[in-house]
Amino acid sequence: MSDRLTKIVTRGGDKGETSLGDGTRTPKDDPRIALLGDVDELNSWIGMILSHDPGETVRDVLAGVQHDLFDLGGALCFPGAPLLSERHVARLDDASAALNADLPPLKEFILPGGAPLIASLHVGRTVCRRVERAAAAFLRADAQAERALQYLNRLSDYLFIAARFEARRMNVREVLWRKEASLSSGD
User: Fold this and answer.
1) Which structural domain range is residue 148 located in?
2) Does 187 or 34 have the greater pLDDT score?
């Protein structure tokens, strides 16, 4: 990569356009560019989660996720490029099953919180759901998009399970929704 990015400030986007990986100029408010930004934001949140020092199991999976999201963004830069694979989805399915195996069943809804790591996993989950919605809208007509959509769906599930797993590992009580604490409880 020594000669790839020799000049960061190019001024090429000063008029509201940017270049795709194939050199095509496109407006910065194009849905493809918006989705690229959303994927980049999600990747940044994964980096934030990693900065909160999850256990090795979660850390290793999320390190791989960062590379997957970078690959997804790279593929989105090239219209028509393949977007992730069945192996990407299977890896998240396997990771989720491994984390969830020893967790107790859910009896109540879980609210974000409990510790910075756990809260950041929930923020990552909600950002991932937003990226998934944007991807579904943008990629609706793309036959190659199925795996990318599955991946984002599985990633948000994984982040939820990881929050539960990390709470248990850290011996932090999960924050549960309580009907009696809600103003909607009919008082």
Assistant:
1) 27-100+110-172
2) 34
Cα–Cα distance for residue pair 180/185, rounded to 1 Å:
6
Prediction pTM value: 0.87
- Within a domain: residue 73? yes
Is the torsion defined by CA of 28, 32, 35, 37 positive or negative?
Answer: negative
Tens-digit pLDDT profile for residues 76-108: 988 888 889 999 999 999 999 999 999 999 888
Longest CA span, the chain: 66
Query: What DSSP string describes 106-167?
Result: P-S-EES-SSHHHHHHHHHHHHHHHHHHHHHHHHTT-GGGHHHHHHHHHHHHHHHHHHHHHH
The number of folded domains in the chain is: 1
Q: Rounded CA gap, 167 and 72, in Å?
A: 29
Residue 14 lies in a domain: no
CATH of the domain at 154: 1.20.1200.10
Q: How many CB atoms lie within 10 A of CB 45?
A: 21
Cα angle vertex 176, ends 50, 155, to 5°? 35
